[in-house]
Amino acid sequence: MASRLLFCAAALALASGAGAAATGARASGAPLVRGVARRLAARMAAPGAAGKTVRVGVVGASGYTGAELVRLLLSHPQAEIAFLSAERSAGKPYAEVYPQFAHVKALPNLVKLEDASYDGVDVVFACLPHAMSHKLVASVPARCKVVDLSADFRLADIPTYEKWYNVPHGAPELQPEAVYGLCELNRAKVATARIVANPGCYPTAAQLPLAPLLSQRLILKEGIIIDAKSGATGAGRAPKEGTLFCEVADGLAPYGIASHRHLPEIEQGLSLAAGEPVMCTFTPHLMPMSRGIEETIYVRTAPGVRAAQLKAALQAQYANDEFVAILDGGAVPATRHVRGSNLCTINVFDDRIDGQAIIISCIDNLVKGASGQAIQNMNIACGLPEHLGLRGAPVFP
Amino acid sequence: MASRLLFCAAALALASGAGAAATGARASGAPLVRGVARRLAARMAAPGAAGKTVRVGVVGASGYTGAELVRLLLSHPQAEIAFLSAERSAGKPYAEVYPQFAHVKALPNLVKLEDASYDGVDVVFACLPHAMSHKLVASVPARCKVVDLSADFRLADIPTYEKWYNVPHGAPELQPEAVYGLCELNRAKVATARIVANPGCYPTAAQLPLAPLLSQRLILKEGIIIDAKSGATGAGRAPKEGTLFCEVADGLAPYGIASHRHLPEIEQGLSLAAGEPVMCTFTPHLMPMSRGIEETIYVRTAPGVRAAQLKAALQAQYANDEFVAILDGGAVPATRHVRGSNLCTINVFDDRIDGQAIIISCIDNLVKGASGQAIQNMNIACGLPEHLGLRGAPVFP
Amino acid sequence: MASRLLFCAAALALASGAGAAATGARASGAPLVRGVARRLAARMAAPGAAGKTVRVGVVGASGYTGAELVRLLLSHPQAEIAFLSAERSAGKPYAEVYPQFAHVKALPNLVKLEDASYDGVDVVFACLPHAMSHKLVASVPARCKVVDLSADFRLADIPTYEKWYNVPHGAPELQPEAVYGLCELNRAKVATARIVANPGCYPTAAQLPLAPLLSQRLILKEGIIIDAKSGATGAGRAPKEGTLFCEVADGLAPYGIASHRHLPEIEQGLSLAAGEPVMCTFTPHLMPMSRGIEETIYVRTAPGVRAAQLKAALQAQYANDEFVAILDGGAVPATRHVRGSNLCTINVFDDRIDGQAIIISCIDNLVKGASGQAIQNMNIACGLPEHLGLRGAPVFP
Amino acid sequence: MASRLLFCAAALALASGAGAAATGARASGAPLVRGVARRLAARMAAPGAAGKTVRVGVVGASGYTGAELVRLLLSHPQAEIAFLSAERSAGKPYAEVYPQFAHVKALPNLVKLEDASYDGVDVVFACLPHAMSHKLVASVPARCKVVDLSADFRLADIPTYEKWYNVPHGAPELQPEAVYGLCELNRAKVATARIVANPGCYPTAAQLPLAPLLSQRLILKEGIIIDAKSGATGAGRAPKEGTLFCEVADGLAPYGIASHRHLPEIEQGLSLAAGEPVMCTFTPHLMPMSRGIEETIYVRTAPGVRAAQLKAALQAQYANDEFVAILDGGAVPATRHVRGSNLCTINVFDDRIDGQAIIISCIDNLVKGASGQAIQNMNIACGLPEHLGLRGAPVFP
């Protein structure tokens, strides 16, 4: 409980904007640009980091988030893949598991984790199922930084973790050390962290708009409803009847109603931002698409507050963040317009009913909702420009 | 205004269940069954209607709802297509416009409306864009019944229509005569109606669960939020950039936020049920699928009321309705499981937050949300068993 | 070998058209019509069969072909489901496995095969994986007819079966009794068969156009190339990485190049029709869609023969077959226009290169390519009108 | 005719491999790699080009190929967008037309072509419909290079163009100057070209495997059959009924049978390679997916030649080409594994029938089939490393 309160205080500071200035490691707020000149300049602006190459290992590389990490790292100018591990596929060329990399000559073969060497490795990305990361992270040499893409270190409160995930926490001694890696709102802490708990996909799309608004008391903490829709990559690559093509195509349905494990993570973030406990309603839906999360969020506004003010607050909050775009005018965020990119697009609309507003938030669940944000965290934690390897424009159509 | 109050009173009676017994024209509540014996028996149970063939004309047959009417009518044992009209495609065989009917020898060619003959026609289905049905309906001979699939006669209050659709009402003198054809809740009135306003797709999926609960005061009239998702058939067949394959596939986005024209229709129905004005929040989303509407509806319950009671009330309400299925246990309605059928599947879930519940409602927008319900209305209005031609099971996968 | 030659002789007779008149059990060639009057008349026209109800058991009902059988049987006026068996799901209500049947009250629960009773069962549909049907069929009481949807009895030549399926044939004594159920070309034999080997999906779409043309020597037996595309239902419901939504969506690839197990089945049929051995090239492709098979078939024509003659021959061949439609003019068959129906649509086109033609053939793999044809076979074998339960129009869009 | 023979001679030289060494402008055959060190080294290896920024204008930027050019150019380290023109959307921010660029601050607004300035522009990409590029290209200042993505300059023989496109050639005087930009096979000529005719999507996927095999006489020139499948982006963004979501989803069909306009382009390339006229069979199919072309190509091999030899020849041909990958072993090319990338993946398989082989070739139609190859042509023509801006890995899933 004590740790939670501490975490709260720090986060509140962050959420109110103070954190934004607290780290020199981030890019100087440049929007996505093109042209090698600006890029080189940007690199130079990262003191001490220019030219440095970060060597990374990916544990659990056979899943979709592993493949997406590899895709993004291949265009990262200062990262190098040291090893890719996977248990069942160990020994195979990575391209046998993910044929889209057939043309890439330099990728290492998959190895069992026990055969992977941490020698010279700076950062480990853990892409394991929940309840398996605790043990892994505990085994990583102390000089390696870890970005954990599972849920294992996301919940600061250990009993909450154990209740929702229905397993004992496997590394309670490390939990206080873990920093919640919602980059834009927790940059300062990530910059010095050794263990970064990479946020869940749904929580990322929810907290980016909601946390600043709660922190600034522009919306009420009661009655927040998050209606979320996700592409099927969110369900992973393990074969299951429910994610077969014929079971997902041309149809949709909610799942995990009032019981999805991202709920406590969302509520943790919103509570931190609000400075008091927040409960919310969250309904995920499985969509007939591969990538993307869209959240339609219904909020009650503080007395007299209209959508325009909510939007202005978000614009101010993210003015220097190139991966969070508050859309102009009445433009409606759509998942297809962030596909393949590290962007979160947001807009805010008045409801017809006074005191209510509707926020739309979109991300690519595999990028900003997983591997992209993981690399963003790596960049921050390693003192690299935050955007490195992440400026690829969305792939549409 | 007077007419609206009258309508209210009648509807309240219906919504409270009294209406269910008020008509002899409906099937005796048999669930979907198979076997010719039961079918024949069911037909016999419709007094005076056995053997009678209803001749129908379809105006605006070149759109998706027209095609779906034709598909359903082809397996209707007591219906016969007299004419199919369309302006731009007049003169063409129907199979040239909809090649899925290439094997059907007996379909009439498309004709211009002015060349269609109402001789011997019992029922006209109007599948025109809004603002065009008024004039058509006014021109149909008085002895023909009309089922209008447009929005033109759905709103009892003419100024409301004119405000939301931004055109003058073209046949105000006929409006009082129009009956809102939400079959399960308005059966008695439909049975004697000449003009049936076939409900919109979104409003059908919303009102079926919400109207009885409001009428029985099991939920509050405040704070109803309908997060709706629809397949692309809802946007029709007219070529538009926004509904091209590449603009819809692998992505989704809300549209018409707080401004969709189905809002006043939903609110009309909910207000009638509640006996007092109801405003609600409604957000439609365009899905990467062809058919189906799913609505995730967030409601505040009356003090002490839990999901189980809401569900019990709906089970009682629809016990004898074969096209509304309240699912057992925690089964989650999914659009793919109603695809191609006239079903509405519903279930109710407790939220984690006291006083809130979540209702899931699914239909096929082209069937129960349009052409299927239109035929159901025809059956009722013509004294046929309500289910005729509508018992096709969902097409999944 | 003897049995094969015999089979050949019979099939040649059939393919040349003699068979079409050989059975009185089939409908009198009526196209799909609507209206109860005609339907009732059609029923009456089936001597001895009117009113008779066929009781069926479905073994292996948990797969997609099982579910499609159930869907079609529910609208079959003279069929009744006696039992549905499945091993792993035994004990469950069918609607728990296929929620689209949640509204159907009268379906029996799934049982283990050992608990199914054949009492009063007229027809057994076997929907098991290959190599499992032999044993099942051998165990069915002799008074039951069997329609086997697996490949187990399709190949008359046992060594060919054993080579391609790489297992011993489990019931060689029954093989001579099995009739290949390509309805339109083998109707007379099916009418008296006890064991019907229901054709494979790809072979159905290939043989319907090719067999008559080979038999009439309008095309050469050399150089036939079948480029086939199938929806993912063809791969079944067992969870496999390769048929996950994200692995199938927005992409396509061939598989089983020059090695697919439907090859010997196609070649058997073409050889029978040609009266001499035919080898062909066959390349299946997995498509990002649920249902449908399209085959683009490249043939070399007999000297001087053009597409128009091929087409005329097919029109003559299928003039009285309501489920095979040779399209008019230059209309191009498309899978979406047969979706959910028992139709095979075909057209023939001249290539720019002399002596070559292109045939397009489309079916719904789950209907005409599996469960629909199985019911058609049941109808024929039981002396019912061939079309019963199968006249549902395609579901498009 | 003279020009055609000349072109032939040059192309034959190229196709036989001589061309590969003829240009110093291409990258030294490095596979796709990551790491800034190698990248910088690669840049330095391009004599005279290091640091140089190419300014480009995109004419017809409102179509899908325009958007894809912008996406790729944004990550091109030595390119800068000078203007984006479009007629109907002139005056709009580009992000209003393509919202995926909402976060990119530096893009110019769309202008009418007449308002675009060629000042300082090095390269013009023409993304106009066919028959409109002739005039445009004629109007571009002589010092600008042009990469024309239309069909207008692809056919060296003007009567062939006029016959297949059914319009007069609008700039016959420029045709001899145009170089057919199939990069890997025509690099030397592209290096010095002012007008590059960017190849069509289908022809690219067909010629890359077929041209070297024909040139080396490993396959016969008779009997080549190309069964091609394309995503819907190939049909462009202009609203048409046939490319609406509901008309494309869950189905497929061939189109343009024996009459598609890419046929003469394919035959031109194959004839050049073979040194004598080649006719082939080509059937495109519209797929329910956004991106990707797969071609299943049936060829007759020279006596005694097997798939392994065809494959070896292709491996040798493309050993130094990083964007053409001949897959290892029996790996089957799939469109999803090239999605978003500039790759062409190819493999070759023996048929069961002697003397026949099957070649599978996949590209992303918008990248290697259009905008990616256009940029590759720009790089070659401007003396930049060929891979600049084109090494993004495929986006899968």
UniProtKB/TrEMBL annotation, chains A, B, C, D:
Involved pathway(s): Amino-acid biosynthesis; L-arginine biosynthesis; N(2)-acetyl-L-ornithine from L-glutamate: step 3/4
EC number(s) reported in the record: 1.2.1.38
Keyword Signal in annotation: yes
Keywords of this entry: Amino-acid biosynthesis, Arginine biosynthesis, NADP, Oxidoreductase, Signal
Signal peptide span: 1-20
Name under which the protein is recorded: N-acetyl-gamma-glutamyl-phosphate reductase
A Pfam family matched in the record: Semialdhyde_dh
UniProt key word Transport: no
Occurrences of domain Semialdehyde dehydrogenase NAD-binding (ranges): 55-193
GO biological process: L-arginine biosynthetic process
Top-rank EC class of the record's enzyme: oxidoreductase
UniProt xrefs under NCBIfam families: argC
Family annotation (PROSITE patterns): ARGC (PS01224)
Gene3D superfamilies: Dihydrodipicolinate Reductase, domain 2, NAD(P)-binding Rossmann-like Domain
